[in-house]
Amino acid sequence: MKSRAAVAFEAGKPLSIVELDVAPPQKGEVLVRITHTGVCHTDAFTLSGDDPEGLFPVVLGHEGAGVVEAVGEGVTSVKPGDHVIPLYTAECGQCLFCKSGKTNLCVAVRATQGKGVMPDGTTRFSYNGKPVYHYMGCSTFSEYTVVAEVSLARINPNANPEQVCLLGCGVTTGLGAVKNTARVQEGDSVAVFGLGGIGLAVIQGAQMAKAGRIIAIDTNPAKFELAKTFGATDFVNPKDHDRPIQQVIVEMTGWGVDHSFECIGNVGVMRAALECAHRGWGQSIIIGVAGAGQEISTRPFQLVTGRTWKGTAFGGVKGRSELPGMVEDAMSGKIQLAPFVTHTRPLTDINEAFDLMHEGKSIRTVVRY
Ligand code: NAD
Ligand code: AHE
Ligand code: ZN
């Protein structure tokens, strides 16, 4: 079948709107009609050419919502007409990782997913007879996409897809990082570096956890207003200070914060986030994704004196088990999604979503088909 899609033919170039060929879903696969997709900074990161797993040509996009159109052989957990959110972190329930009860990092399809292909090693997308790669097991920048059955969460059909698509990545990652990875407790102090979709979701999560002080840090002060509505109590622009930002945060708090979150993908800021964590017990959670070849560093003394460095993928959330409930929470107002959707665009204008992100004007642009 034909599908309208935004294809990244080359790194660093705008996406091209084309008609792709999409092959039918094979065994264990599902054809999904995407109705809405967010644009996350990770899409821009991979498009930039900095992603070690980046492959071209590719259909990017991993923050979508849609409806099942058809299922391949042996698929039992979803049927045509079901409303779904594609998952870049699958949940098979069978692998060592799923069974461990310790992590959401299912490996059922991860190896082929990282190579831009379906589990049988081939692609379902092609253009002019040549294969086009899949991305993060989702490829939501195509109206019709094929994903593994284990990479789909079935959700309430009455949910607003323009909003709940953000549970496919950004909002879930931020909320989960607070709840599952950091386990923020009532009264804890929190510092959030980077106030995009991820950082603002961390702030929302911190408020839900009844954190005490929530320090919001960004070089773009235009982000502070929304951070305040989500519950941030203090606002810091590193550009207003002539000393290291970790020093500023430690001076503000006495000994540093209980939890810090890096939501940018900047290894220098990751160091600052670790070093503003409280002596003896503070922890820092890396959420941001850094480019090929980049590494983190700090003085080991920072860890010797009780700080912990952690990271999180998709906020530690198991998508098939937990996303349906998070969708219900969004529908009942327990999770706020509307403020994240600062812009909407038709597919034809998807490149504007990237421009708005790079200009610091948007939190999330949601693209509709
Ligand atoms: P975004 O571009 O919307 O937001 C980033 C924010 O960081 C912006 O507000 C920007 O002004 C701010 N910033 C940039 N440099 C800064 C600096 N030096 N100091 C302070 N603030 C600075 O991005 P996003 O969509 O919110 O994504 C954030 C990061 O999280 C990206 O690296 C993305 O790839 C990553 N991410 C990771 C996961 C995961 O599961 N680990 C999930 C989603 C996104
Ligand atoms: N491909 C990159 C790593 C990218 C990365 O870390 N992705 C995050 C999700 S970002 C969502 O916006 C993640 O979940 N990672 C775990 C995983 O299994 O991919 C690289 O460095 O190779
Ligand atoms: Zn993302």
From TrEMBL:
SUPFAM superfamilies according to UniProt: GroES-like, NAD(P)-binding Rossmann-fold domains
InterPro entries assigned: ADH-like_C, ADH-like_N, ADH_3, ADH_Zn_CS, ER, GroES-like_sf, NAD(P)-bd_dom_sf
Function field: Has high formaldehyde dehydrogenase activity in the presence of glutathione and catalyzes the oxidation of normal alcohols in a reaction that is not GSH-dependent. In addition, hemithiolacetals other than those formed from GSH, including omega-thiol fatty acids, also are substrates. Also acts as a S-nitroso-glutathione reductase by catalyzing the NADH-dependent reduction of S-nitrosoglutathione.
EC number in record: 1.1.1.284
Any one Pfam family match given in the protein's UniProt record, by short name: ADH_N
Reactions that this protein is recorded to catalyse: S-nitrosoglutathione + NADH + H(+) = S-(hydroxysulfenamide)glutathione + NAD(+); S-(hydroxymethyl)glutathione + NAD(+) = S-formylglutathione + NADH + H(+); a secondary alcohol + NAD(+) = a ketone + NADH + H(+); S-(hydroxymethyl)glutathione + NADP(+) = S-formylglutathione + NADPH + H(+)
Protein's name according to its UniProt entry: S-(hydroxymethyl)glutathione dehydrogenase
Alphabetized PROSITE patterns for the sequence: ADH_ZINC
Domain Enoyl reductase (ER): 12-367
Keyword Nucleus attributed: no
SMART domains given in the database record: PKS_ER
GO molecular function: alcohol dehydrogenase (NAD+) activity; S-(hydroxymethyl)glutathione dehydrogenase (NAD+) activity; S-(hydroxymethyl)glutathione dehydrogenase (NADP+) activity; S-nitrosoglutathione reductase (NADH) activity; zinc ion binding
Gene Ontology BP, a term: formaldehyde catabolic process
Coiled coil spans: none
Entry similarity comment: Belongs to the zinc-containing alcohol dehydrogenase family. Class-III subfamily.
Essential cofactor(s): Zn(2+)
Top-level EC class as recorded in UniProt: oxidoreductase
Gene3D superfamilies: Medium-chain alcohol dehydrogenases, catalytic domain, NAD(P)-binding Rossmann-like Domain
Any single Gene Ontology cellular-component annotation: cytosol
Keywords assigned by UniProt, alphabetized: Metal-binding, NAD, Oxidoreductase, Zinc
Originating species: Pseudomyxococcus hansupus
